[in-house]
Specification:
Helices cover about 35% and strands about 15% of the residues. By secondary structure, it is of the alpha/beta class. It has a single domain (about 30-185), classed as Glutaredoxin, CATH 3.40.30.10. The chain has a five-stranded mixed β-sheet with strand order 5-4-3-6-7, with helices on one face. A two-stranded antiparallel ribbon has the order 1-2. The longest helix is centred in the N-terminal third of the chain and has 21 residues, at about 1-20. The radius of gyration is 21 Å and the shape is globular. This is Thioredoxin domain-containing protein. It comes from Kribbella lupini. It is found in: Cell envelope.
Length: about 190
């Protein structure tokens, strides 16, 4: 009797493992953003701006060319994140919603920071609907210029390319992010 019960439990366990193990993979469309959705565009070269983004060039997480931060002008919301960062996961829905609401009034750019697993970063962006350009800063090149203690960090860049405000830490609500965009960039959503 004991051998029969063990055999039944073993068979049930194998059936359960088989059923759970093959349905969803990290490359399914629902969990992985196509790299084209994260594509970067070439920016015309511009002189660096006092109090602007650092003169650092970073590779694109998705398809597209490397991007020199000093070339960027706003209104721009630049978010420094990592897939391993819990607070980054908390604020990701607010950034995805901002992208929808902004309708071209505000650009968004992400920087995947100190992240050893590129494929998980692409998956993270897809899971959270962050379908705007993202750069990779595996070597922490922006750490000193932006004074990053750790992610998340959100910088607000005006039309002249000046960093007008830096929010350190997690954004706690959609209302907080929308208000920062209005107050710091002058854009009403």
């Amino acid at each position: 009797m004991r051998q029969v019960r063990t055999a039944v439990l073993l068979a049930a366990t194998l059936l359960l493992l088989t059923a759970c193990g093959t349905e969803k993979t990290s490359s399914s469309p629902s969990t992985k953003a196509p790299e084209q959705a994260l594509a970067c565009e070439a920016e015309p070269s511009k002189p660096p701006v006092a109090n602007g983004l650092p003169d650092v060039t970073l590779p694109c997480l998705g398809d597209g060319p490397d991007v020199r931060l000093a070339d960027l002008r706003g209104p721009l919301v630049l978010n420094v994140w990592a897939q391993w960062c819990g607070p980054c996961r908390e604020e990701a829905p607010f950034l995805a919603e901002l992208q929808k609401k902004a309708g071209g009034k505000v650009k968004l750019l992400g920087i995947d920071y100190a992240d050893p697993r590129r494929e998980l970063a692409v998956e993270f962006a897809g899971e959270h609907g962050l379908a705007y350009p993202h750069l990779v800063d595996a070597e922490k090149a922006v750490q000193q210029p932006l004074k990053i203690g750790g992610p998340p960090l959100t910088a607000f860049v005006d039309g002249d390319g000046k960093v007008v405000y830096v929010h350190r830490g997690v954004l706690k609500s959609q209302q907080e992010l929308d208000q920062l965009v209005k107050d710091k960039l002058g854009v009403d959503l």
